[in-house]
Design goal:
Elements: H1 3-16, H2 19-26, H3 30-44, E1 49-51, E2 56-58, H4 60-82, E3 91-97, H5 99-116, E4 120-126, E5 140-145, E6 153-160, E7 162-166, H6 168-173, E8 187-191, E9 198-203, E10 206-211, E11 213-218, H7 221-229, E12 234-238, H8 239-248, E13 252-254, E14 259-260, E15 263-269, H9 277-289
Parallel strand pairs: 3-4, 3-5, 8-11, 8-12
Antiparallel strand pairs: 1-2, 5-15, 6-15, 7-12, 7-13, 9-10, 9-14
Helix pairs in contact: 1-2, 1-3, 1-4, 2-3
Domain HTH lysR-type: 1-59
GO molecular function, one term: DNA-binding transcription factor activity
InterPro entries: LysR-type_TF_proteobact-type (IPR058163), LysR_HTH_N (IPR000847), LysR_subst-bd (IPR005119), WH-like_DNA-bd_sf (IPR036388), WH_DNA-bd_sf (IPR036390)
């Protein structure tokens, strides 16, 4: 069997500690994972993994050779990258981003890239929690933050402003909102990704922090937007997600002069070394596609 693939399977099992999970992640049968591990152990002339009914764990020999096997796989991939034609991109890109950004912006931004590069495929994994790119085998992450993860290489590709919104129906039946302190008397929609339901708002270099009451909470911005449109309360939303709803009259801006903290959209990747040309090409495309954009 292919020793390079066997090595990649071994590395993944060492990470997941599960043949079943690795089979799902690498899109192969569990029996095929078992065969690849057997190939590795036959090649190394020693047992690399201990199997029990509950868990798979590295043996002492497995721990000793894991680092070298990872290095060998990286070198093999580096050679493959170096041999690719410079004028033609190819390969499969795995990236992760939030549901809201994937739905509102990223899906349409990637289409021109795929048209121009027919030998490239892109897989988008949607999740809002922080992801270990190396352990999860992602090539790229598109994340919105005030500062990127210092352990990753981060390239800003767009600006991201947020705004407070509510449906016209909610605002019509509720007390006026004239100052940030008024928000404490309203139903606000909470994002579980924030540690506390405190909104920090700035106007003319003056910042106010308001503790808001949230009976409707979600970890996903598109859910909060849908609830706001239905009249559930006031939501803090990224402009890239709600600008169309504001223009269509489904949502209205609250406290227009008071702005939540601005953030940036970053393309994040683990290392400049061994970065596939297709991944670098996608980053360059997104940078150009979003050039000058600030929602």
């Amino acid at each position: 069997m292919d020793r390079l693939t066997a090595a990649k399977v071994f590395i993944d099992v060492a990470t997941t500690e599960s043949f079943t999970t690795t089979a799902e992640r690498l899109e192969m049968s569990r029996s095929m994972v078992t065969r690849y591990i057997a190939t590795m152990e036959e090649w190394m002339k020693t047992r690399l993994l201990q199997r029990t009914t509950r868990k798979v764990a590295l043996t002492t020999a497995g721990q000793q050779c894991l680092k070298e096997i990872k290095l060998w796989v990286e070198q093999a991939e580096h050679i493959a990258v170096a041999l690719q034609p410079a004028d033609r991109l190819s390969g499969h890109i795995r990236l992760t981003t939030s549901m809201s950004f994937a739905h509102a912006q990223l899906a349409k931004a990637i289409q021109p890239f795929l048209v121009l590069n027919p030998e490239v495929s892109v897989e988008i994994d949607v999740r809002d929690q922080v992801t270990d790119l190396i352990a999860e085998r992602f090539d790229l992450a598109i994340r919105i933050a005030m500062a990127p993860d210092p352990s990753l290489i981060g390239k800003p590709i767009a600006g991201c402003d947020s705004v407070m919104v509510a449906s016209p129906a909610y605002l019509e039946r509720s007390p006026d909102i004239r100052a940030p302190s008024d928000l404490s008397h309203h139903q606000c929609l909470g994002n579980r990704s924030f540690e506390q339901h405190v909104w920090h708002l700035t106007k003319n270099n003056v910042t106010e922090s308001v503790e808001v009451s949230c009976r409707f909470i979600s970890n996903e911005a598109t859910v909060l937007k849908a609830a706001a449109i239905e009249g559930a309360g006031v939501a803090m939303q990224p402009r890239y997600l709600v600008d169309e709803d504001i223009q269509a009259g489904r949502l209205a801006v609250v406290l227009k002069d008071w702005m939540p903290k601005s953030m940036s959209v970053y393309a994040l990747y683990p290392s400049r070394e061994y970065l596939l040309p297709a991944v670098r090409g996608l980053i360059d495309h997104l940078t150009q596609y979003f050039d000058g954009k600030r929602w």
